[in-house]
Amino acid sequence: MARIAGVNLPNEKRLAIGLTYIFGIGRSTAQKIITRLGLNPDMKCKDLVEAEVNQLKKVIESEIRVEGELKREILANIKRLKEINCYRGSRHSKRLPVRGQRTKTNSRTIRGNIRRTAGSGKKQSAQKT
Q1: CATH for 3-64?
Q2: What b/e sequence results for 11-35 when a residue is b if at least 16 CB atoms lie within 10 Å of its CB, and e otherwise?
Q3: Model confidence over 31-66: pLDDT tens digits?
Q4: Domain 68-111: what homologous superfamily?
Q5: Is the C-alpha dihedral spanning 11, 15, 18, 24 positive or negative?
């Protein structure tokens, strides 16, 4: 099992897909890394040789921001937006959608509202007749 940037790559996935398990590496970045190193994108992650794993580690750690470093940078950017009191920062602090989405409907994931179906408003009687 290959371990790169603190993430275990899944054994049964193709290399191009397995690299996307690392936060900060998407499909296109994974393809660029693989072609640069001259690896086969269709090979399984379990078929990687130790030398190939070391090449991948070297390229990913030296040239691409991934995992903790990238998450810290994202949080720092959001914190900066909040501190300068810009519109995007205020939306972040109110936990509302930032990029212009509507809020009358939708935006349930960011607001945390759980949809409940409304009943008739009458409570059920304790007795059944």
Answers
A1: 1.10.8.50
A2: eeebbbbbbbbbebbeeebbeebbe
A3: 999 999 999 989 999 999 999 999 999 999 999 999
A4: Ribosomal protein S13/S18, C-terminal domain (4.10.910.10)
A5: positive
Q: Can you read off the two tokens belonging to residue 129?
A: 């007749």
pLDDT digits (tens, 9 = 90+) for 63-97: 999 989 999 999 999 999 999 999 999 999 998 88
pTM: 0.73
Residue appearing with tokens 């994108």: 41
Query: What is the CA 15 to chain-centroid distance, rounded?
Result: 19
